[in-house]
Structure formats: C-alpha cells, structure tokens
Amino acid sequence: MGDWRGRALTQFPELRGVIEQESWSCHVFLSELWLLALEAHREDQPETLRRVYGFARWCFDQPGQFLPNAALISFYDHVFDDWDLRREVVGWLPPEVVARARALWEWRLPSERFAEVDRLLTAGDPPGENCSEHPL
C-alpha cells in the first residue's frame, strides 16, 4: 500500500472502501475527499475540513510530481465547483496552492466567476486563514 494510502486510512476511516481499492488511484480518492469536503462545508464541520484540506495540502507538498499534480487536478481544481461555497473555500486555500491552481481555475471557470474568485482571494482575509501546515 502506497504512502498516501496508509496516511489516508489513518485520517479517513470513513473512506476505507475507496482507499483500499488497489485498482483505484489517489485521483479517485482525492475526488471522494472533495465530496467529503463539500459535505463538511455544508454541515459546518471544521474538524473534517481540517483533515480534508490538511491531507490535500500534504499531497501537494510531497516530493516529485505525482501526488502534487494529483492534488491539483483531482482536488484543488474542483474547489469552486459548488459556487455557493466559494467564500468558505477561500479560507482553506494556502497561498502556494492558489499560485499553482489559479491558472486551472481561470481555464475552468466562466470569466465573471473567475473574476470573483480573484476578488475573494485578494480581498479581506488572506487565503489559507483556516489551514495550517499539515495538521495531520
């Protein structure tokens, strides 16, 4: 079992079925992790959000390209898919992630939505106000 699987099993026993599917990559897991984040945002579950965003950040910070790219494509690329949560999401995005994911958001979002994301990221509280360095 890869390093990400062991760490994921420790942090997300509720996603054991996805994690233990050897034929599925971390991309599938990170997509499921984003669904967990959506639920946690909607139900105001800050501890779950800390675990989810902490794991995504851990992947983003790993050496090499595989896990960081997986985190960008399968997690961070989708953080503005539920438009109603955009204000809540911004506080969980570390500046280093914003710098790398910004082009993905610009490509995926309609121009007026991307402009609002840009405003949210530069106005008021800085991005990442809710996250800390790998709180796992």
TrEMBL record:
Q: Which Pfam families match?
A: DUF7674 (PF24722)
The superkingdom of the source organism is: Bacteria
Give the matching InterPro entries: DUF7674
Where in this chain does the record put each DUF7674 domain?
A: 9-97
- Full protein name: DUF7674 domain-containing protein
Name the source organism.
Solihabitans fulvus
